Amino acid sequence: MWPLPRPDLDVRDVYSTCISNTRPTKVKARLEQLEDAVADAADEYETAATTASLHTLSHLRDQPDGADTAKGDNKKLTGCYTSRMARKGSAGREIYDQLLKRAHRGLCPLCGHGFADTIDHQLPKVAYPLLAVTPANLVPACLPCNKARGEAAPATAEEQTLHPYFDDVTDHVWLAARLTTPPEPGAVFFVSPHPDWSATLTARVQRHFTTCNLARLYAAQVGTELAALNDYLRGKPYRAVLDEMQHRAASYGTRNSWQAALYRALAASPWYITSGYLDEWDD
Ligand SMILES: [Zn+2]
Questions:
Q1: How many A from CA of 246 to the centre of ligand 1?
Q2: 120: CA distance to ligand 1 center in Å?
Q3: 10 Å Cβ neighbour count for 156?
Q4: What's the pLDDT score for residue 19?
Q5: Which of 166, 162, 157 is nearest to 136 (CA)?
Q6: CA gap 214, 117 in Å, rounded
Q7: DSSP assignment of 88-125
Q8: Taking Cα atoms as reference points, which of 183, 155, 202, 141 lies closest to residue 280?
Q9: From CA 19, how far away is CA 13, in angstroms rounded?
Q10: Contact partners, residue 247, CB within 8 Å, separation at least 6
Q11: Do residues 25 and 33 make contact, with C-beta atoms less than 8 angstroms apart?
């Protein structure tokens, strides 16, 4: 949902670093033989991601060994990530830490809310062993987003969640909220597609929103925010409340954070501005 600059890392350098300490030498020699296939897959990935077509890479699925192989090359390649990049003290761990540090203010680009303290494979490494350490496939993410995306791989263009290195939907307002009134006060968050979006992009943003459980994540933040806001507004006249809400909504501009969507909804709600803020909200 929130774009990040693509890592300026060469896949061959990354791969060579990760496998540099591999023992026994027989395994290392085999991994060295696979370097061209890893580099070729990374090139294909780059081209497909640039055109929002990662679903077209199904020919790379389960390669190089094929689906039935639990051992062999596929396992060696996924091990390049788990044992030789993500593991503390491993040869590639510095690269892993570099990738983590790319998260803006340390926050997950997939939800904009959680701490980005894991690395998420946009195309899962188990299904795509050749892409296990491809830098463009490795995105800093919070654990809930990482887990929520799981091992699923897109079969169609519409099934692709947003890729922070290749997709940017920050030009338009698309995150919206609808207030709910007592006895269950709060807000329901949803995607409001921009008219300029294609049907595919609309489906992808919806997919991303649903996959990462963003409606639930954002709704959970509302109670505390509104309890404090209501305390602040209590006793102010209608006009002051309206001005305050309009000012706050405008101050978020076209941002698509849950706060921005919430304040846009509050500013547009006659119910909230006339009486809703006087309710006791449980924080
Ligand atoms: Zn997240």
A1: 29
A2: 10
A3: 11
A4: 97
A5: 166
A6: 18
A7: TTSTTHHHHHHHHHTSGGGB-TTTSSSB--EEEESS-T
A8: 183
A9: 10
A10: none
A11: no
* Cα 203 to ligand 1 centroid, rounded to whole Å: 19
Which residues lie near ion ligand 1 (Cβ < 5 Å)?
108, 110-111, 114, 142, 145
Strand bridging mode 186-191 / 175-180: antiparallel
pLDDT in tens, 69-119: 666 999 999 999 999 999 999 999 999 999 999 999 999 999 999 999 999
Helix (H, G, I), strand (E, B) or coil at 152: coil
Q: How far is the CA of 110 from the centre of ligand 1 (A)?
A: 5
3-state secondary structure of 265: helix
* pLDDT of 70: 60
Ligand 1 centroid vs 196 CA: distance in angstroms? 26
Centroid of ligand 1 to alpha carbon of 35 (angstroms)? 32
Angle at 94 between CA 80 and CA 143, to 5 degrees: 75
Residues 67, 126: Cα–Cα separation, whole Å: 10
Confidence (pTM):
0.94
- In the reported structure, the alpha carbon of residue 193 is separated from the centroid of ligand 1 by a whole-number distance in angstroms of 21
What is the CA(115)–ligand 1 centre distance, in A?
A: 7
Q: What is the 26 CA–ligand 1 centroid distance (Å)? A: 39
Q: Give the CB-side neighbour count of residue 85, counting CA atoms within 13 A.
A: 30
- Both structure tokens of 92: 């590639």
Quote the tokens at residue 157: 């263009």
Examine residue 24 and say whether the peptide bond preceding it is cis (omega within 30 degrees of 0): yes
